[in-house]
Amino acid sequence: MNTVAANRSRSAPLILCISLALRWALILRGGQYYFSDEGRYETSRAFVDFLLSGDSSSAFAELFTAPEHLGFKLLGVIPAFFEHVTRESLVLPTLFFSVFSVLNLFLIYKISQQTGATQQQSFFALVFAASSMSLLYFSRHLVPYDPAMTFGLLAILIAVSKTPSRATSLLCGASAFLCFITYNGYWALAGLGMLVNILQNKRNGSGLIRRAWLTAAGFALPAILLFLLAALAGTNLLAEYGSFSSTVSQGSFEEGWSLPFEYFWHAEHGAFILLILLAGYAIVKGVVEQKPDVTLWLTCLIAIYLCLAIPATALQAFVVYGRLARQMMPFFILLAAGGLAQLKQDFSFGDKLTKGVLVALVIQAAWNYQKPFSLTYPRDFAEKAQAMYPDFHFSEKRLIFGAPTLCQNNGYIAEYIKRFEVPPGPDPAIEGEVLLSALHPDNFLPYQYEGYTPQERTTLRDMQIEMRLYRAAESFMNDANPVWKIMRSCVVREE
């Protein structure tokens, strides 16, 4: 290994450490339990509570009550146990799950190496991955997308092993199973890992069939065990998964073919254009020079895209969200890294061009990253308001979907301090002093690709919703004012 390659190899751990530090800094700025799906972590907490109290039957019954994304709930048992040892905190479990986000960057780097890329090309892949907004911002939330992607990428890493064997096929299938069971929405990534394993290094028909059986066995054996455990707990897992898949309908089926690209543009901005251009160059050169890694990543990218677009647009089986589209990002990155390495090699000014691309990427990433770091969330806004104004009280139930957009307590009025299922209508004018305000996190464009229709996104962008705390004017607080008369309390008792 020459000096430059050795330096790049040593830089990889530094980039991963910086990436982890950024994620932890993001987590410490709040945002946990913003999405209702994050409440699934409560199952992990309940499981540990039952288990530590000696009620194992209730613990396992709790797991299978709503069995979707079961692997995430099982992983959540680890931080939930440590919460018992230390104290209850949403930060601790989020710090734990953020490690998977960084593991995804590492796995992209290792996959690049495993498929014959130079140290330089693999380094480019790591830099692209570490600069990706779509691989970053979910790390502040308690959601299963990053751990599921970890198992999916691990399945692909095993599949491209230089020394395939029966054991690697079984492990690939098992890792694909973990990907699917951790987040059911990543079924395409799980299936892709298995297909890559079956079709890689094919020599003859019998070898292909053997790998197919072994890979399927690696997936099926833990699946059968899980189905049996669920049956013992009184749950038909297959029926539950079928029922759950039909609920992925909030949003627009028709934009399933276009949403991934629109989402990536609003998440990555100029970085996505760079990825497309570099990936395009890699594809052109790869077709001419018949490079197997380019063919592999292009096939993976197209396969994931078709698994999103066809069920949504043609079959109207489920809506495509940003969290589903991000399965494509690792393959954009692997292609783009190859394209940049090829550019450096093909042109006399390749060194300067490469440095320019990397500098542009880092600048764009820095601009992208400041957006999520500047967000304030309803839960954190309410806590800050109560800390600054002790006479103001606000119940957590006022954060949920069905809560009113306006509520009052002790002469204070809270507006838009909640999560929306659809964009809210305009509130009546409030007479009083604005004590505290912050842009609502739904103004963060990537969030608008998690169940909103195109029309709803337009409404959100026009409204530019702000969370506000008012001190109401005396003249406003009387029963002759119809707005005040019907305004609900910020404190939830019996309603």
Task: Characterise this structure.
The protein is mainly alpha-helical and 495 residues long. It folds into two domains: 3-370, no CATH class; 378-489, no CATH class. The protein contains 21 helices and five strands. Helix 2 packs across helix 5. The relative contact order is 0.09.
Short description:
The protein is mainly alpha-helical and 495 residues long. It is 62% helix and 5% strand.
List the helices and strands and how they pair.
Elements (H helix, E strand, L loop, with lengths): L2 H26 L12 H12 L3 H10 L4 H6 L1 H9 L5 H24 L4 H12 L14 H15 L6 H17 L4 H13 L5 H28 L4 H9 L13 H10 L1 H20 L2 H23 L7 H4 L3 H18 L3 H24 L4 H11 L17 E4 L2 E4 L16 E8 L14 H10 L2 E7 L9 H5 L1 E2 L6
Parallel strand pairs: 1-5
Antiparallel strand pairs: 1-2, 2-4, 3-4
Order of helices and strands: HHHHHHHHHHHHHHHHHHHEEEHEHE
Going by helix content, strand content and strand pairing, the class is: mainly alpha
The overall average pLDDT, rounded, is: 94
What is the global morphology? globular
What descriptive keywords fit this protein?
495 residues; mainly alpha; 2 domains; 5-stranded mixed beta sheet; globular
